[in-house]
Design brief:
Layout (H helix, E strand, L loop, with lengths): L2 H8 L2 E9 L2 E2 L2 H13 L9 H13 L5 E8 L5 E7 L9 E5 L20 H8 L6 E5 L5 E4 L3 E6 L2 E5 L9 H12 L4 E4 L11 E6 L3 E8 L2 E2 L7 H16 L9
Helix pairs in contact: 5-6
The structure holds 4'-deoxy-4'-aminopyridoxal-5'-phosphate (PMP).
Length: about 260
């Protein structure tokens, strides 16, 4: 490993992870804005325009086949932008995944804002070390509130109501989360964004995660509690089935891409 590379990495990389649907970058403008917001904590703005960003993404996508995952990094050391393109990883998550709780809590907002997407955030780094044979781990906040996974947002269903930690819980405002909330509302499912206590995961009827690469991911097992044997619960299934058509049809997900 060369010294220059180490210097770049050790000062932190502000990043975003994107994916394509039908070979177009999904919600690219939202990711660009979120990247800019992370940079704003350092008094910086994106060193490239949105048009340039889109050009870099489409040129990289061209070089691969099928759907693509893109990681856009900004080095706080050199201010260089690096984009890594790879085939979108496919995982069979439909039959449900396992999650458990992270050992370490979310860093309080006043120390590190949850909106700051940067490599080396210790709450995320430590949580990811705990994943092991789980799909993701759930991070709890300083007051015992449920926050999010280490790379995903979390939703519960209780008595037909869709519940997810509000932004004040100390979470990243996931782009998939926002699409799922709007999808649920369009299907007349009641949505509660609020402070959720971590224990509520144990009394929920359904639990699922959301993140860019996989969309809606049903949770089959939380710690030792099995939520379903064969099939995800009805609301999770409805959202899984409708997510892609909804996301593809929503104009704001395709700003600059079409
Ligand atoms: N929370 C964290 C901490 C994340 O890293 C991610 C992935 N970017 C998410 C939630 C999910 O966000 P999105 O739906 O925008 O991928």
């Amino acid at each position: 490993m060369d010294g220059e590379f180490l210097e770049e990495v050790s000062q932190g990389l502000v990043y975003e992870t994107l994916r394509t649907y039908n070979r177009l970058p999904f919600a690219a403008w939202k990711h660009y804005e979120r990247w800019n917001r992370s940079l704003s904590f350092f008094g910086l703005t994106a060193p490239i325009t949105f048009e340039r960003y889109m050009k870099i993404l489409s040129e990289g996508i061209e070089k691969l086949e099928g759907e693509v995952r893109m990681k856009v990094y900004f080095s706080l050391k050199s201010h260089k932008v690096l984009v890594v393109f790879q085939p979108l990883p496919r995982a069979n998550v439909e039959e449900g995944v396992s999650v458990k709780f992270a050992r370490y809590r979310r860093i309080p907002d006043l120390s590190t804002p949850p909106f700051l997407k940067i490599t080396g955030r210790t709450d995320i780094v430590l949580a990811r070390r705990d994943i092991k044979d789980c799909y993701d781990v759930l991070i709890i906040g300083a007051s015992g509130q449920l926050c999010e996974g280490s790379f995903s947002n979390v939703f519960l269903v209780k008595d037909g109501v869709l519940i997810t930690p509000s932004l004040e819980s100390g979470i990243l405002d996931g782009i998939t989360r926002e699409n799922v909330i709007e999808l649920a509302k369009s299907l007349d499912i009641t949505v509660e964004e609020r402070i959720v206590q971590a224990w509520e995961v144990f009394t929920a009827d359904e639990v699922f995660l959301t993140h860019t690469s996989m969309g809606v991911v049903p949770v089959r097992k939380v710690e030792n509690r099995i939520l379903f044997e064969e099939e995800a619960g009805p609301i999770t299934k409805t959202l899984m089935e409708n997510f892609e058509p909804f996301a593809l049809n929503r104009k704001e997900n395709w700003v600059g891409a079409l």
